[in-house]
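Posting here for the record, re: pyridoxal-5'-phosphate.
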Amino acid sequence: MLIFEKGQEGRKMSILPECDVPISLPKEDDQRKKSLHLPNVSENEISRHYTEAAKKAYGVNDGFYPLGSCTMKYNPKINEYIASLPGFAQIHPLQPEHTVQGCMEVLKTTEQYLCEITGMDRMTFQPAAGAHGEFTGLLLIKAYHESRGDGKRTKIIVPDSAHGTNPASASMVGYSVISIPSGEDGGVDLEELKKVVGEDTAGLMLTNPNTLGLFDRNILEITNIIHEAGGLTYYDGANLNAIMGMIRPGDMGFDVVHLNLHKTFSTPHGGGGPGSGPVGCKNLLAEFLPNNLVEEKNGYLFKSPVQSTGQVKSFYGNFLIVVRAMTYLFMLGKEGIPEASKHAVLNANYMMAKLKDVYDMAYPRTCMHEFVMSLSRLKKENGISAMDIAKGLLDHGIHPPTMYFPLNVSEALMVEPTETESKETLDQAITVFRSLYETAKLNPEILHQAPVNTSVTRLDEVRAARNLILRYDFSDKETDKDDTEN
Ligand SMILES: *Cc1c(COP(=O)(O)O)cnc(C)c1O
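Prediction output follows.
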C-alpha cells in the first residue's frame, strides 16, 4: 500500500513550528487549483510505513551481497560517526576559507593519501561518481592534446572487457570509440591493439582488473604502445580494492585514474547515490584539473589551475564522502590497505575454486576481486538460465551477483564476494550455489518458480521494462474544490 492510500482526510502530523513571519501567497493566477495530494497520515503511520518499506529492501547490513563490479562491502560505522560531526556536517560551501581550515585539511590529506596509493601527482574530488570521473579524466586528456595544437587525435580505444561506462564517457566527451576484442586469456589482444593505434589515438581506457575479474598480463606493454603513438592512458580504478597497496596505476604507465570512493573506500551506495569519483593525474595533466584544488601556503587555500577545464560539480564535490574515505584510510593505515585487497582477491579465488567443478568459469585462471561464470551449458542441458539461478539465490537470502554482464560472456554471473565477508559466510554461499546447481540438474522446475520466499515472487521483467508506470494515478481521487489547506 502506498503512503497516499493510507491515513484519513484531515489527519495531520504537526512537526513544523508556527510561522513567525508574515505569510505571503503567490498571485492568484499562480496558485495551485487542485489538491497537492499530500498524504494525510499520523506520525505513527508514517513511521510504520517506512519501516515496512525498509524491511522489503535488501542491503549489505542484511546479508551477503556479491554484486560483481559494485563492491557491496561492509562500511564501518565509525565512518558515519565521523562524517556526522557538526564541524564536517554543518558547514556551508560559501564559508570563508579561514573558518573551514580543518575541512580543507581533510581534502588535502585524502588527496595525498590517494595519490600515494595510485601513484598520481594531483587529484580532484569534484566528480560525483565513477562515470563522472571518467568524463572528467577524458576532459583532461582532451585539454592536453588541444593545448599542444594536436587536433587530429579524435579516437579513444576501449577494450570490450571494459566497464560499460567507459565507451559512454568517451563519446560524451566527443571522441569516437574504437572497441577491441579480448585475447585468449581474457586480456587485451595486443595484435588488435597495434592494428588500431595511430596518429588519431587520443588515448586508451583500461578497466583493470577488467570486467572478467582479470588483471591484464600485458599492462606495461599496453601503456607503452599507447604512449609511443602519442596517446595518453586512462586507468578505470573503480575496483581498486583488487590492487590497492599492492601495485600502483602510476607505476604501470597510466596518466590519469579515477577511483570510486563509494566502492573501494567504504561509503554506502546504491539507489543512485551519493557517490564520489575523484580523478588523479600525473603532473603533465594537473594544470587542466577542475577548479578549487586545495593548496597549502600558510594554511590552506582553494586555487584553480591556470588552464582548468572548469567545474564539473558544484564546489568541492560530495565532501562528506571524502570524510568517510579519510576515516577508512586512517583506520586501515599502511598495513591495512594492502591487507584489504589481499582478502578481496583471496575471497574471490576461494569461492571460484569451490565452485568450478560444477559451474563453468568464463576464464578459469586466477582471478582478482571477482570472477565470472557462464551458465550456457546449464541452459542448454537443463533450461536453467543465469536469471533462474539468481532468483534461486533470493530464496536463500542472498543478493544475486551481477547478471548478463560482461556482454562477451553468455549467461554470465559475475560474483564479487568482497574482502569484508567471513569464511563462514563464503562457505554458506558456496553451499547454496552448489545446491542450486543440483536443483537445476534434478528438479529444474523448482528454479523456474523461484523466488517463493520473497515479498513478491517472480516478476514479469519484460512487462516491467516495457510498460513503465512512473507516476501515481490520482484521477479517481481528484476533487474539484480548491484545496490549499494541505
Ligand atoms: C562502478 C564502476 C564504474 C562506474 O561508477 P559509477 O559510480 O556507478 O558511475 C566504472 N567502472 C567500473 C569498473 C565500475 O565498477
